[in-house]
Amino acid sequence: MIDVKLKTSPPPTVDENDRKTKAKSLHLLSFSKPHGRTFHVAWFSFMIAFTGWYAIAPLKPYIKSDLKLTSEIATSDIFSGLATIIFRVVAGVSCDLVGPKRVITALLFAGAIPTALAGLINNADGLYAIRFFIGVLGATFVPCQFYTTQMYEKNVVGSANAFAGGWGNLGGGLTYILMPLVFDGINSSVGNTNASWRIAMIIPAGLCIIAGLLNIFFADDYPGGDWLKRSKTLENGNAGVVEIHEANEKKLDGYNVEHSEQDKPKKTGKLTELLSAFCNPNFGLKATNGNFIGAVFGLMNFFSRATGGILSDYANKKIGMRGRLLTQFLILLFEGIFLIIFGFNAETMTSAIVIMIFFSFFTQGGCGSSYGIAPYIDPPIYGTVAGLIGTGGTIGGIVFNSVFARYSTAIPQGFVITGIVVTCVSFTTFLLKVTDQ
């Protein structure tokens, strides 16, 4: 089986050749430098970024009432998604040029500023602007994945990327628990909901600054240390090159189509919001309880994405790249099936939660399995590749939002349509060809 261990281990011998010093096993409880420490800083930073990125979503009812908004509150989601699309591409290219440490630190510090200033907005235009600039935090996905891809060999990189991405995405569910609790705590002292949500936004901003500092003091760009001080000549060419070779462009285009469809129901914050909106009126729940149930989807990231990555690595060990692609296909297929089942059978709270657990597992597992494929597309410019793939995922999320905007009064139908699309797109896996694999 794949060498993923729940124990500490002595750090591997490090020299200046980053290929030779990549770890061939993943020790989840190791904080040794550089591999273990950077792994934990990577996922933790991505998780904290979510607290700022999604901070507004659980507070929307109070913001909507305070600013007297209607459809504008939903429109603001588009601005957030647009920013993430732009900044993920920029982050990817930047990682290739200066390394992940500088990029993720800059993103966290930059995202903390509009998060803290969100409490100053007083109209829809202000909300649009703030959500756009907060969207920079969504780009932390790219350096998070770049970190782990540089630290781990390909026999275990799928698992490493999936654990980092999965544990990082816990931030989506965590935010839906954290922000209502912060709001309630402040409101109990202030006694003013309009002031309370504004003050609450300072907390995630502070967390983002702390995460940025952790990167400065505890993370490494790659096993050899500083990205800018590494050897300028790599086996596969210049790592700063940002052009994508024509053959790899075709691979990336095909993979982006699949990843965007896979990512539709992966938009943790939006889906958590939808599940809350579905559970509250249908099962007579209070808003806070609905948030907690919806947060189950985000919290499934603790193990579901990692499982997808581990299965991908295991299949690769047995039959090579075909195994990774087959794993991707099967997980996406079951994801689509359970989304359809949810749309037709979520008639009681028990059935809704049970089915939600299943489609959550396969949705997040599909993301995990994709992390095992991406590093093979064009290794010398993996940052650019990760940025473009992440952008494809965000576009999928925007399409997903549009489907549910159309079916806002019939949420189950939205799940059925999304499930049908995901099921169909799963078969595009057989059209993917990864050169030299």
From TrEMBL:
Topology relative to the lipid bilayer, per the entry, is: Multi-pass membrane protein
Spell out the molecular function terms from Gene Ontology: nitrate transmembrane transporter activity
InterPro entries hit by this protein: MFS (IPR011701), MFS_dom (IPR020846), MFS_trans_sf (IPR036259), NO3_transporter (IPR044772)
Which keywords does this chain's UniProt record carry? Membrane, Nitrate assimilation, Transmembrane, Transmembrane helix
Enumerate the spans annotated as Major facilitator superfamily (MFS) profile domain: 38-436
Question: Which is a Gene Ontology cellular component entry for this protein?
Answer: membrane
Name the predominant localization. membrane
Where do transmembrane segments lie in this chain?
38-57, 103-121, 128-148, 160-183, 195-218, 292-314, 326-346, 352-374, 381-404, 410-432
**What are the GO BP annotations of this UniProt entry?**
nitrate assimilation
Which subcellular locations apply to this protein? Membrane
Known PANTHER family for this protein?
HIGH-AFFINITY NITRATE TRANSPORTER 2.3
Q: Which family does it belong to?
A: Belongs to the major facilitator superfamily. Nitrate/nitrite porter (TC 2.A.1.8) family.
What is the protein named? 21381_t:CDS:1
